[in-house]
From TrEMBL:
Its EC number is 2.6.1.44. The keyword Iron-sulfur does not apply. Gene3D superfamilies: Aspartate Aminotransferase, domain 1, Type I PLP-dependent aspartate aminotransferase-like (Major domain). Residues 131-436 form the Aminotransferase class V domain. Belongs to the class-V pyridoxal-phosphate-dependent aminotransferase family. This is alanine--glyoxylate transaminase. SUPFAM superfamilies: PLP-dependent transferases (SSF53383).
Amino acid sequence: GITITYLSRRAGRVLERGSNSRQLTETDSAGQSAPAHLTQVVHRTSHAVLNTIQRKLSAVLAVVYGIVLARVIIWGFSYDERVTSNSSDTMKFTPPPASLSTPLIIPDKIMMGPGPSNCSKRVLTAMTNTVLSNFHAELFRTMDDIKDGLRYIFQTENRATMCVSGSAHAAMESLLCNLLEDGDRVLIAVNGIWAERAVEMATRYGADVRTIEGPPDRPFSLETLARAIELHQPKCLFLTHGDSSSGLLQPLEGVGTLCHRYNCLLIVDAVASLCGVPFYMDKWEIDAVYTGAQKVLGAPPGITPISISPKALDVIRNRRTKSKVFYWDLLLLGNYWGCYDEPKRYHHTVASNLIFALREALAQIAEEGLENQIKRRMECAQVLYEGLGKMGLEIFVKDPRHRLPTVTGIMIPKGVDWWKVSQYAMNNFSLEVQGGLGPTFGKAWRVGIMGECSTVQKIHFYLYGLKESLKATHPNYVFEESNGYH
């Protein structure tokens, strides 16, 4: 537009000069002017010529601009093709997976298996906080809160109380990895799948593994353990306090004192038992223990509490060699968790949002109190036992004194397809009726009284869902009230 106006003005000035020259020639020799109407004719003619020139210039310039614009667009497309062609030569990817094109939808479920358990809204909400970096002050304050809470539920004063990043298997690995060196003798009391896992792990770490074996529905007596310790003279004894594969509770009173009499450390798996039955780490002289955040505590999986006695910590500090796995090194991990009198150093990136969730789960336990938590679960377990008895269903662990309140094995009746029952319960009631594991696989279902499902209302719903699922999948099954241990 600017160019057209400029050219038009130049043309106008040229015509104006031409008009002035005509006016000069129209004067006579005497200097008199030509008639006025001649001058008007000249002006009208010049303006007409000017308008014609402007129109033609505008048309010409419009064509020129159109041609230039088209060339620019064509060049741009050509450039994009060249860039794309060059990129495709160096970056060739498979198409994105179609499975990720739909939104994630997870339905609510009533998690009444042996774990993981349902978390409270408070715990789940805690995970929505912003992710924190490894040395943020807010993260360290939360970790300190967790250490206080863990000392409370373990009933210990141990400074070396912390969390391992990973499931309870990670804690089992870390304790065995740190307390055992090549050739060290460890005695493992095997009557369930978790002791079997401990045998596998200790063997891989080069330990001299000795075992005593017992039935999965009966605990080891103090006399049996004493004879085995005296015979094998182990550096460590591994015991499972509450076995979630069977629902068996192993008494611990007196075991720590027995171990220390023979200069032996006591390692305890309390994954399924802690906060469901009394547990006293210091009073019972337990040297190393771990539990599962996703079990009775009602927190998400992926972070596992552990505690180590001063005696066990001295053993770790005086190892002949470093811990075989850097990630499990409890001297390094304990340093980051602030368990020792030394400056903190980076070990690994912790899952800050899981730490927030565990903190809130521990806060809920502290608010209710350990005694109330344990009583509530014991009452729920009694309601469960009575309900199963009325349905004619037997419990895997026959002696009530040795039953773990938080996990109960329910014997599968003869002729019943346990998988069909479990599937029906999930599909129709969103209720988890989980099968057996290890010694109870194919023999029992396992029901958990953990997390948010530790209420009498939930127990009644479980009994109803289990009965209806049995009736629907096995119409000829007859429910007969049983006697005996129920």
